[in-house]
């Protein structure tokens, strides 16, 4: 008996789940037990996909802490203790929190396979699994946030002259300094009076140059490409859970812990629709119409 347990808070795109089922059925055989665990919002977003593959949804408790991982782990151990014992358990999540569960299942003689989106696979969990299947688009369409930051720093260093230490001024003996000081104080008495030199009026301030229209849009387009690369599910045009999008943006370092995903996405009001407006729970990407 083969089992497929999906963490819908991690593997939260219908396209990823479809790809996972196709690969598993071609390489591992049928999957009689199919379950998906997650919040009500994430399971609702995957409703069509779960219905198409006849997956049983399990809604976690609405607590302050996420209980999805614990619910999945409890059911996995319960299935592992049943008779007959499953020959294969597939964990639909790249979260490294499942590593102790995977090790325990493997000790019971169960083969364990991981299915994860490419950017969400925890490196620490790789040695624990018997096989890892990565789904989703290749990460190469747009540069990641760290790469862009490194490029900007490099460009800044090359464009500005390197700061070189100023040579230390030669020290003047104390006697010479005293002599020069006394000479300066006596000089005004010996020099004849001269007419004051007229001071030219200050030059008018030049107006700040306005950036060209193309330059003004260059940065937003780059940030948009990075957002779509970090959250490929947005490219489907379907509403995605805001919590999952926020976690993906944080993992890709497109936002800090002090910046909310809502604030970041509101920088593109014509491209991302947050619903409901008062307390957004989903976000949908609306591609800009092609230029005429």
UniProtKB/TrEMBL annotation:
Residues 140-211 are annotated as: Disordered. InterPro entries: NYN. Residues 156-172 have a biased composition (Low complexity). Residues 195-205 have a biased composition (Pro residues). Residues 5-130 form the NYN domain. It comes from the Bacteria. GO terms for molecular function: RNA nuclease activity. Pfam families: NYN (PF01936). This is NYN domain-containing protein. It comes from Rhodoferax fermentans.
């Amino acid at each position: 008996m083969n089992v497929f347990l999906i963490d819908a808070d991690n593997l939260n795109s219908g396209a990823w789940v479809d790809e996972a089922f196709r690969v598993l059925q071609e390489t591992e055989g049928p999957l009689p037990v199919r379950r998906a665990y997650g919040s009500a919002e994430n399971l609702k977003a995957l409703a069509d996909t779960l219905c198409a593959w006849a997956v049983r949804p399990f809604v976690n408790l609405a607590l302050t802490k996420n209980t999805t991982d614990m619910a999945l782990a409890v059911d996995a151990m319960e299935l592992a203790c049943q008779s007959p014992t499953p020959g294969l358990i597939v964990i639909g999540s790249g979260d490294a929190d499942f590593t102790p569960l995977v090790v325990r299942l493997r000790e019971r003689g169960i083969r364990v396979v991981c299915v994860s989106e490419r950017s969400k696979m925890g490196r620490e969990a790789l040695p624990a699994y018997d096989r890892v299947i990565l789904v989703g688009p290749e990460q190469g369409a747009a540069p990641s946030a760290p790469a862009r930051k490194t490029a900007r720093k490099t460009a800044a260093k090359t464009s500005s002259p390197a700061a070189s230490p100023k040579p230390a001024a030669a020290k003047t003996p104390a006697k010479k300094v005293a002599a020069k000081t006394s000479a300066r104080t006596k000089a005004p008495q010996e020099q004849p009076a001269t007419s004051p030199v007229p001071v030219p009026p200050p030059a008018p301030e030049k107006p700040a140059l306005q950036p060209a229209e193309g330059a003004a849009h260059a940065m937003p387009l780059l940030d948009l490409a990075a957002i779509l690369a970090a959250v490929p599910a947005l490219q489907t045009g379907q509403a995605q859970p805001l919590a999952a999008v926020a976690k993906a943006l944080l993992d890709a370092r497109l936002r800090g812990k002090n910046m909310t995903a809502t604030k970041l996405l509101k920088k593109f009001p014509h491209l991302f629709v947050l619903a409901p407006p008062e307390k957004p729970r989903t976000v949908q990407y609306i591609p800009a119409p092609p230029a005429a």
